[in-house]
Design a protein that fits this description.
By secondary structure, this protein is an alpha+beta fold. The protein is built from eleven helices and twelve strands. It is found in: Cell membrane; Cell projection; Cytoplasm; Nucleus.
């Protein structure tokens, strides 16, 4: 067969881009492939066996539509683009995630999709529940919390909370991270698949979980209601309340659902109950509602039947896989625990070694300080011994000085007593001298008075003598050769002699008085000198007494 023949037999293909929640894939599809062929190819590529939950979704004219499995891909109303984009999403939701989601890949895809719906606010969640869900998402992504590795700010680039919650509370990113980390630290030891399952178990209890909403009307004029389809049944909501349905039809209570153009009819199992009819804006919406109702009803009926061989095998494999993973996780946990214990023991040994080294270093330093202290003490002891000798010598000298001072004090006391006695004698002498001086002064005064009286008497006598002489011998001056005058001269000489004698006595008396006065002055001067000497000696003795007191 030629190469040209091989080329002619190759089927024509078109490119398809499959977008999952966290990845993108491209495939080449044959022109004749139906929707199921493409869907099976994607499931094989993902390793997915629980295919009944999922579908391929695309958007045309602003409306989200699911690819039909029984029709060719190119025969359906799909976007005209190359490659053609489809979103691989969960189309139907389980009633109980823990019982129905068997494969880990199924669980992971549901986790990613539900997480995205919560963050995009397609599913309402309270702020407290969003923080708890965020902590499980962090556990699934980062594993166990390690404060040494997960430092503040490690969640800065992760989208974990809806924007509505961030706007509702005026908290910083650091505060939100602190709240999430507080829960995250509590999930230690939980594996990734277990954390994702805990996330889904919390999410499945939310009112808007797994519900597809469509605007409907009870008449053809206006749209005033919402119809919701989920795994449990059909619910009718008011336009402004998606949490609490006004009316619900469980799948077990529905007898028939019919669709004709824009009208959809729900017939309850109870034939007496009222038939519910509603209208949608487009025929495509009615068909989409009808398709979702059929799929959810089929799953509802399948859950209540005996599992098929395939499901039983999948559940057995899932149990074995869970058991194996549980054992593996336990083994890893034990190894991790042992490793942590070994690390703690190592850290403890290192800490103990460091502590012992530190203690040894401190002991060496203490030994060195002790040696230095011993040397210093020895030096101080030597200095103290020398000081003791010096003090002993000083004590001996002080004792000698004390004895000398005692002797000096005794001498000083004796000398003081003698000096006091001398002072008393000097005072007595001074008193006597004062008295003698007064007496002599009085005597000198009397003598001066007597001398004055004597001189006055002498003057008067001389005057009288002259007067007598002039009267008896008036011519003596004229006749000096007259002999009788010799006798008178003799007599006059005698009187003059008497007068001279009397003058001599007076002079002698004055001389004696002056001499006594000079003697008195000389004695007074000597007495004053003696008093000064006594005062000097007394002052010296007082200084010696003070010094003796200081020495003592």
């Amino acid at each position: 067969m030629s190469i040209r023949g091989l080329k002619k037999k190759q089927p024509k293909t078109f490119k398809v881009r499959i977008i999952t929640v966290d990845a993108e894939m491209e495939f080449s599809c044959e022109m004749k492939w139906k929707g199921k062929d493409l869907f099976d190819l994607v499931c094989r590529a993902l390793g997915l066996r629980e295919t009944w939950f999922f579908g391929l979704q695309y958007t045309i004219k602003g409306m989200c539509t699911w690819l039909k499995m029984d029709k060719k891909v190119l025969d359906q109303e799909i976007p005209k683009e190359d490659p053609i984009s489809f979103h691989f999403l969960a189309k139907f939701y389980p009633e109980k995630v823990e019982e129905e989601l068997l494969q880990e890949i199924t669980q992971h895809l549901f986790f990613l999709q539900v997480k995205k719906q919560i963050l995009d606010e397609e599913i309402y969640c309270s702020p407290e529940a969003t923080v708890l869900l965020a902590s499980y998402a962090v556990q699934a992504k980062y594993g166990d919390y390690d404060p040494n590795f997960h430092e503040p700010g490690f969640l800065a680039h992760d989208e974990l909370l809806p924007k509505r919650v961030l706007r509702q509370y005026q908290l910083t990113a650091e505060m939100w991270e602190e709240k999430i980390t507080a829960w995250y630290a509590e999930h230690r030891g939980i594996a990734r698949d277990e954390a994702e399952m805990n996330y889904l178990k919390i999410a499945q209890d939310l009112e808007m979980y797994g519900v597809n909403y469509f605007p409907i009307a009870q008449n053809k004029n206006h749209t005033d209601l919402l119809l919701g389809v989920d795994a449990k049944g059909i619910h009718i909501y008011s336009i402004n309340n998606r949490f609490s349905p006004n009316k619900s039809f469980e799948w077990s209570s529905i007898r028939n659902i019919s669709c004709s153009e824009k009208e959809l009819t729900i017939k309850p199992l109870d034939k007496k109950a009222e038939v519910f009819k509603f209208f949608s804006s487009q025929l495509k919406v009615n068909k989409l509602i009808f398709q979702l109702c059929i799929g959810n009803h089929d799953l509802f009926m399948r859950r209540r039947k005996v599992d098929s061989i395939e499901i039983q095998q999948m559940k057995a494999q899932a149990r074995e896989e869970k058991a194996r993973k549980k054992m593996e996780n336990q083994r890893l946990a034990r190894e991790k625990q042992l490793r942590e214990e070994a690390e703690r023991a190592k850290e403890e040994l290192e800490r103990r070694l460091f502590q012992l080294e530190d203690e040894a270093r401190q002991a060496n330093e203490a030994l060195l300080r002790s040696q230095e202290a011993a040397e210093l003490l020895a030096e101080k002891a030597q200095i103290a011994e020398e000081e003791a000798k010096l003090l002993a010598q000083n004590a001996a000298e002080a004792e000698q000085e004390r004895q000398r001072l005692e002797l000096t004090a005794l001498k000083s006391k004796e000398e003081k007593r003698l000096m006091e006695q001398k002072m008393r004698e000097a005072e007595l002498i001074a008193v006597k001298l004062v008295k003698e001086s007064d007496r002599r002064a009085k005597e000198a005064e009397h003598l001066k008075q007597d001398l004055h009286e004597a001189r006055e008497a002498e003057r008067k006598a001389k005057q009288k003598l002259l007067d007598i002489t002039r009267l008896n011998y008036p011519h003596m001056a004229k006749y000096p050769q007259y002999s009788p005058g010799d006798n008178r001269d003799a007599n006059f000489d005698k009187g003059s002699t008497k007068l001279d004698l009397k003058d001599i006595d007076l002079k002698r008396l004055s001389f004696e008085i002056e001499r006594e006065r000079l003697d008195y002055l000389e004695k007074s001067r000597k007495f004053e000198d003696r008093l000064k000497e006594l005062k000097s000696e007394i002052h010296a003795l007082k200084l010696e007494e003070k010094q003796a007191g200081l020495y003592s």
